[in-house]
């Protein structure tokens, strides 16, 4: 049996700035898989992904590192275009192509302790897939894709239509502050996390950027610190890196607090370099041990 299985589309990202245009792979499954390789090259990990054969070279790069990958051909690869102005905070986003949704048939052969769904768009994973995987292992979901819909080529924020039923099957849910507010209608972070728990989620991970994160489980709130980076180079994939760290430690039997701190430390390392996470467990533990910031626990 696999320890952790990540399921999601690898994307082709087009990054347009006033200086140049760059094409690169991306998506939750890409950042998660590269991060897992660097974190533990001998980990019992598997990636299930889908993309067009024209982008299979992204998969070959991962396979060359010894990662266990199951790939299904799609008519298209998810193709995001992100255009930035001189002010990097101003971004417009288009989806130039969508990949085929995943099917239950593609997931039947894999047995795992943890399944992580790296959703990018609202139709990547059906409710039936959530129900199916919840019976096979601990189900972890990144909510971001369920809150994005595409009309034409434009991405629009949308509520998660099937959220109340879906959340009853999800063990671990990751949301950022905007996603939590959109799903629950609550502006208070603790209230939002509490409501998601009442709707059925066992472990709520609410990331707050440089304000840290909140882990809510078993009726307790763990306010996890954000460990300050030496410099901020690239925030792309930080949420995926956080999720990687959390599941990696939970699989090892770590507590909610320990897993949250480790996830935060991985995110700090990721911030300091471009591309996927390329640090190691020792680096993350050093950040935690040398920090004077304590985790605050609330009932």
Question: What does this molecule look like?
Answer:
There is one protein chain. With 299 residues, the chain is an alpha/beta fold. It is 31% helix and 29% strand. It contains 10 helices and 16 strands. The chain has helices at residues 28-39, 56-63, 104-107, 127-134, 163-166, 177-184, 189-198, 238-251, 256-271, 281-290, and strands at 2-7, 11-16, 21-26, 45-51, 68-73, 78-84, 91-97, 112-118, 138-142, 148-151, 154-157, 172-176, 203-207, 213-217, 220-224, 296-298. The strands form 3 sheets. Strands 5-4-1-8-9-12-13-14-15-16 form a 10-stranded mixed beta sheet, with helices on both faces. A 4-stranded mixed beta sheet has the order 3-2-6-7.
Question: Which helices and strands appear, and what pairs or packs with what?
Answer:
Layout (H helix, E strand, L loop, with lengths): L1 E6 L3 E6 L4 E6 L1 H12 L5 E7 L4 H8 L4 E6 L4 E7 L6 E7 L6 H4 L4 E7 L8 H8 L3 E5 L5 E4 L2 E4 L5 H4 L5 E5 H8 L4 H10 L4 E5 L5 E5 L2 E5 L13 H14 L4 H16 L9 H10 L5 E3 L1
Parallel strand pairs: 1-4, 1-8, 2-6, 4-5, 8-9, 9-12, 12-13
Antiparallel strand pairs: 2-3, 6-7, 10-11, 13-14, 14-15, 15-16
């Amino acid at each position: 049996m696999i320890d952790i299985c990540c399921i999601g589309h690898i994307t082709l990202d087009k990054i347009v700035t006033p200086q140049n245009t760059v094409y690169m792979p991306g998506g939750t499954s890409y950042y998660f898989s590269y991060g897992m390789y660097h974190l533990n090259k001998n980990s019992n990990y598997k990636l299930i992904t889908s993309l067009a054969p024209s982008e299979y070279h992204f998969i070959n790069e991962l396979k060359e590192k010894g990662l266990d990958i199951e790939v299904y051909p799609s008519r298209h690869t998810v193709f995001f275009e992100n255009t930035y102005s001189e002010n990097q905070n101003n971004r417009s986003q288009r989806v130039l192509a969508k990949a085929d949704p995943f099917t239950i048939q593609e997931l039947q052969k894999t047995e795992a302790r943890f399944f992580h769904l790296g959703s990018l768009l609202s139709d990547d994973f059906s409710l039936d897939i959530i129900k199916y995987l919840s019976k096979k292992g601990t189900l972890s979901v990144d909510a971001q894709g369920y809150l994005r819909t595409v009309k034409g080529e434009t991405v629009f924020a949308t509520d998660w239509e099937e959220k109340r039923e879906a959340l009853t099957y999800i063990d671990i849910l990751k949301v950022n502050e905007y996603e939590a507010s959109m799903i629950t209608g609550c502006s208070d972070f603790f209230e939002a996390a509490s409501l998601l728990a009442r709707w059925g989620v066992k472990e709520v991970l609410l990331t707050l950027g440089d304000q840290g994160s909140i882990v809510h489980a078993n009726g307790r709130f763990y306010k996890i610190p954000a460990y300050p980076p030496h410099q901020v180079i690239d925030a792309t994939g930080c949420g995926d890196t956080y999720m990687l760290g959390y599941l990696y430690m939970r699989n090892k039997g770590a507590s909610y607090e320990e897993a949250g701190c480790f996830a935060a430390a991985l995110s700090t390392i990721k911030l300091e370099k471009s591309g996927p996470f390329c640090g190691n467990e020792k680096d993350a533990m050093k950040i935690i041990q040398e920090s004077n910031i304590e985790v605050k626990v609330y009932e």
